[in-house]
Structures are given as C-alpha cells and as structure tokens.
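step=encode ok
step=design start
structure_in=
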C-alpha cells in the first residue's frame, strides 16, 4: 500500500513507511465507535452471550471471505495453536472482561482505561520483542498516559464509575497487552482474513461455556437497537476493525501501533456523547491535548 503524498511530518504516521493515513484513521474510528455500540447492545443481551454470537458469525464470515479470495488455506499444528491462543486473549478475555465491566461503567470510561495499553506495551516491548524505546517514544507515551490520567481523575474522583466494573475492564486491558505482544512475537503467517477468522472462532469457543453457566439467554430481548448494534460490531468492528488492527500491528512496531489507542479516549468520549448522551467535562477535553501530542511523538518516523 502506497503512502499518501502528504509530508511525513504532517501525519500521525507510523514508524513503518508502508502504512498510509487512511487505514490508521479507519481503524481509530471503528475501534473507538465499538464502545458505544457495545453499550447499546448489552442493554438488551447479556455480554458474554452477545460476544459469543458476534465472534461466531464474524469468524464464519471472515473464513468465507478468505476462501472466496483463494486464500483460505487453514494452518495446522503450532501455527493453529498460536492463533487459538491469540483469539482467547484478543477476543475472549479482552472483550469478555471489558464488556462485562461495561454493564456497570460508561462506554467512555472503558475507552479511556483500555487506551492506557500503549505505555504497558512500550515498557514491555523492549525485553519481550527487542524493540528500542527511544526518548521520543517514551516521552510520547508518558504524555499520552498523562492525558488519560487527567480524564480518569475527572471521573474517578467523583465516584462516577463502579469499582468492580473498573477491575473487570482492567483485566481486559491486560489481556489486550499480552495479546498484542504475543502477536508480534509469534508472527502468524496465515492470511489476515484466515488468521482473524480463526481468532474470532476461538474467542467464541472460549466464551461459550462461561456464557451458558453464568447467563440466561432468556434475558435477551430481540430489539431493533440490538440487531443494528450487533450487525455493526460484526461487520465494521470484528471484520473491519480487527483486520486493520492486525494489518497495522504486522507492519509497525508494537509500541507505535499501540500508541494509536491513545486516540480512543477523545473519540470514545465523542461517540459516548453523540450516541449515548454521556456527559463530557472540560477536564476530559483538556486531556486530549497531551494525548494528541504524545501520539505524534510516539509514532512519527525518525529521519
């Protein structure tokens, strides 16, 4: 994919010249919008049941796309086991925990907390992946974290969010960090549609027994909002967002790719305000400034 002709200094470009602004912008939009869509969906269906159905349908569709494009060869042995492990982390644990937490905390807060993952990845990418953490990337990660902390402070000091829900979302955050590092370490060789589809099906299989044990399918209500939000999350987020995430992660360093998650708080706040009418304070908006500058520092290419 060719890079856009816009000067590199003007873009929030990754440290890999092979990624243009378009997939980066599309990923950030789709990933951040998922929090508001999920908040709508969990009103009418238990979260684990909802995720199991979503991953099952999305996985079948993605493997169908892979087969139709002639790239549907299934991996075996260690390669298949690696994708199953990644699916458990990136789908079942990350979203299972964060969605369960989102039944008692706001979608905007969830987006903010999950977006702290770049700093954890930046610190761990050195010993785990051998990535060099420059002073510019470190400063960018710290600025991004400071912006996130500012938004978190405005919400936690007023006790607006449930502590138990916060712990569940934190567990989802740790699963995402581990899944990101392992994806870079294992380097799946399958095509993106195939590898993402297998991960999605693995996530559905891992969640199914917990959904059956802890939730009642009778609590689900087949409303129009549930159908539309589910359709959006299957097609736009599971198929589109995850495809773009793994594409970006495969072409850029783990530190630079994960730094894009600092964009999720302002975008998550925007979607929460526009769609769910969740309140946004001036401290939330102020936190966007160090976040934006931190992303620019952490992801800009060096000369």
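sequence_out=
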């Amino acid at each position: 994919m060719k890079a856009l002709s816009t000067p590199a200094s003007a873009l929030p470009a990754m440290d890999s010249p092979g990624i243009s602004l378009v997939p980066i912008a599309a990923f950030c939009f789709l990933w951040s919008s998922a929090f508001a869509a999920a908040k709508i969906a969990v009103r009418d269906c238990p979260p684990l049941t909802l995720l199991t159905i979503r991953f099952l349908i999305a996985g079948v569709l993605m493997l169908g796309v892979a087969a139709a494009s002639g790239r549907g060869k299934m991996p075996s042995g260690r390669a298949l086991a690696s994708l199953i492990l990644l699916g458990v982390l990136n789908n079942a644990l990350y979203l299972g925990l964060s969605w369960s937490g989102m039944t008692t905390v706001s979608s905007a807060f969830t987006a903010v907390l999950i977006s702290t993952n770049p700093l954890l990845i930046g610190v761990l990418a050195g010993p785990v992946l051998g990535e060099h953490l420059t002073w510019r990337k470190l400063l960018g990660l710290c600025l991004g974290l400071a912006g996130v902390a500012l938004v978190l402070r405005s919400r936690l000091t007023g006790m607006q969010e449930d502590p138990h829900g916060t712990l569940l979302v934190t567990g989802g955050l740790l699963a995402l960090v581990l899944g990101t590092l392992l994806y870079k370490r294992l380097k799946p060789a399958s095509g993106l549609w195939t590898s993402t589809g297998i991960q999605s099906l693995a996530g559905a299989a891992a969640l199914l027994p917990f959904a059956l044990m802890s939730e009642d399918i009778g609590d689900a209500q087949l409303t129009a909002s549930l159908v539309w939000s589910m359709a959006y999350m299957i097609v736009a987020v599971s198929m589109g967002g995850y495809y773009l995430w793994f594409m970006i992660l495969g072409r850029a360093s783990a530190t630079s790719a994960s730094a894009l998650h600092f964009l999720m708080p302002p975008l998550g706040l925007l979607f929460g305000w526009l769609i769910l009418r969740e309140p946004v304070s001036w401290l939330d908006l102020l936190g966007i400034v160090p976040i934006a500058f931190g992303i620019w520092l952490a992801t800009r290419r060096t000369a």
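step=design ok
step=annotate ok -> The two ends are 21 Å apart (CA to CA).
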